[in-house]
Specification:
mainly alpha, 3-stranded parallel sheet, 3-stranded antiparallel sheet, about 50% helix, RNA-binding
RNA sequence: GGCGGUAUCGUCUAGGGGACUAGGACACAGCCCUCUCAAGGCUGGAACACGGGUUCGAAUCCCGUUACCGCUACCA
């Protein structure tokens, strides 16, 4: 980790501030395009271009985009892990809002917790958003690049008497907190440092006693009209005097967010419900800083099957996990959109364009929802069925290659054939991974024969052998297209006096080793005459060999 | 503990005083279609947390209870 906070020189900064009555602090604008950590990733991708963003816009209906009231929303994840589905959902709603009503969707990486933030996580967040197709409209901002502004905002509050120095140590605070809790009481900071005489404060500063800066919460009640929950009010008495600047001069979350949201002129803060209790603190900070308030919207949490907030122990919770499981980004977006929002009618499966067109803040839900993987898979199957083979091919080819089914060159040479196979398989599978698995017998001869299918369809070995013998000679003389094959094979069944199924099922096992596959005549065409006959021959051999 | 939030089938939801013997979807079961599977169609079981109000009338409004979730850091 690079020492991105080097050179803060905090005590000097504090001193100079104390002598001055206001922070003259030249506004420090974060160098947004530069990653504080040196990541070469400031711009997301071509998908971020203005042109692209506006192409989304014209797909939606109406909604004014007059610059004066243009919305500015942001997604502000902390890079301490992979992009979680909860975070992805939050990002999606912010994105949907902007694509629907106009404005800008911003990305801010909250990397001020240097102990936990990693470049790898930042990359994972970019990858996840890119995969989902959630493009942001301005270069990503790194919060760590703005600590100077955060600090000057904190010092300004100090200078204006809206905050005070607190000399209490962490150890002391912990002890008092523990004591209060053991008596069943809620711990609230008793403002003892706010009552220190001026000369005592000066003495401690002179003695180099470390201090934090605490925001002095005013009397009254803080309320706001939450876009999803209606009015929420907190008596300020329940809001603790929060620390806004650590004793090492770095900012605390609530201050940093407010400072950045003001700087980025955010108009609507849409985030998870776990931030509800941070909101009064932040509103108070906006007011103290003299900045106009944004609107707030708190989305419900996403829960695991056990009803607890979704976390790693629930299994796959990173969006990247689902990408690897074979879920389509379109399906993931669709599914996530329905977790906390409803179109108001019974519409569930829909493409992104409809999601944008139908999105409305009215449809935002308050109740936490359980992440149901089964339904995600079903929805993915629906999307697979709606997506053309041409679109699916670039997704499936790498998988087929990595599974050793073929080389990329081979796939390219047999593209028409490959597309035809995809077309037959896409409505039968629920994930791309499953489709590739189903494709195995069409690529390789060493596929597995399903024991159950063999036991059931090749029960009477002699009879099956005679049957396949007949099928083989009929196949050898048949024209090789679905219509002729069907005609000839059905005729054979008639001649033999058996139902078509009695003939086709044993053949299916011979061809693909399973009792489930696309229509048998399509399978024959896909396999080709030579390979089909070879597989029948092999089945005959297997039937003869078996005791 | 304190503060805040939420409460309709197992799950996601529709519902916003009478159209509700509560609708749809996933999952589950059965049937149909059919060369199998998938898809599709049909059918079935399955819910308004509880208690008070308000009202001619409450899933819908109000209060309380309960349950669950979140927050309660010199984390974000």
């Amino acid at each position: 980790m690079l020492n991105r906070y080097a050179g803060l020189n905090l005590y000097r900064g504090f001193e100079s501030l104390r002598l001055r009555s206001s922070s003259d602090g030249r506004p420090v604008v974060g160098r947004a395009t530069l990653s504080a950590s040196g990541l070469p990733l400031a711009f997301p991708s071509r998908a971020t271009s203005r042109a692209d963003a506006s192409s989304h816009r014209h797909m939606t209906d109406s909604t004014p985009t007059d610059a004066a009231s243009s919305h500015r929303l942001r997604f502000a994840p902390s890079p301490t892990g992979f992009l979680h589905v909860g975070g992805a959902r939050t990002a999606l709603f912010n994105w949907l809002f902007v694509r629907k009503y106009g404005g800008a969707f911003l990305l801010r990486i909250e990397d001020t917790d240097k102990a936990r933030s990693t470049d790898e996580s930042t990359r994972a967040i970019f990858d996840g958003l890119r995969w989902l197709g959630l493009d942001w409209d301005e270069p990503a901002v790194y919060q760590g690049a703005n600590v100077a502004r955060h600090r000057s905002d904190a010092l300004r509050l100090l200078a204006e008497g809206k905050a005070y120095r607190c000399f209490c140590t962490t150890a002391d605070l912990d002890e008092r907190r523990k004591a209060a809790e053991s008596q069943g009481a809620a711990f609230v900071y008793d403002r003892r440092c706010d009552r220190l005489p001026v000369d005592e404060i000066d003495r401690r500063i002179a003695a180099g006693v470390p201090f934090t800066i605490r925001f002095r919460v005013p009397d009254g009640t803080t309320r706001w009209d939450d876009m999803v929950r209606g009015e929420i009010a907190f008596p300020n008495a329940d809001v603790d005097d929060l620390i806004i600047l650590r004793s090492d001069g770095t900012p605390i979350y609530n201050l940093a967010v407010v400072s950045d949201d003001i700087a980025q002129r955010i108009t609507l803060v849409m985030r998870g419900e776990d931030h509800i209790s941070n909101t009064p603190k932040q509103i108070l900070l906006y007011e103290a800083l003299g900045a106009p308030l944004p609107r707030f919207a708190h989305l419900p949490n996403i829960l695991g099957a056990d009803g607890k907030k979704l976390s790693k122990r629930h299994g796959a919770t990173a969006v990247g996990d689902y990408e690897h499981l074979g879920i389509l980004a379109e399906a993931m977006v669709n599914f996530l959109a329905l977790l906390g929002w409803s179109a108001g009618d019974d519409r569930e499966v829909m493409p992104r364009a409809d999601l944008i067109a139908l999105f409305s803040t009215e449809g935002l839900l308050r109740k936490p929802g359980v992440f149901d993987v089964k339904k995600l898979e079903w929805m993915n199957g629906q999307h697979l069925g709606m997506t053309s083979a041409e679109v699916l091919e670039p997704l499936l080819s790498p998988l087929a290659v990595s599974q050793g089914l073929a080389t990329a060159v081979e796939l390219a040479t047999r593209r028409a054939w490959w597309l035809q196979l995809i077309d037959l398989l896409r409505i039968r599978g629920r994930t791309t991974v499953e489709i590739v698995r189903m494709a195995v017998p069409y690529f390789r001869d060493d596929f597995e024969y399903d024991p159950d299918a063999v036991a059931k369809q090749w029960k009477d070995r002699d009879a099956t052998a005679r049957l396949l013998e007949a099928v083989r000679s009929r196949l050898a003389g048949s024209g090789w297209d679905p219509v002729e094959l069907e005609r000839d094979l059905r005729a054979l069944a008639d001649e033999l006096g058996i139902g078509a199924g009695k003939l086709l099922q044993p053949l299916r096992v011979a061809l693909v080793g399973s009792s489930a596959s696309p229509g048998i005549f399509d399978v024959l065409v896909l396999l080709g005459r030579e390979r089909s006959l070879r597989r029948v021959d092999r089945a005959l051999t297997m039937l003869a060999e078996a005791d």
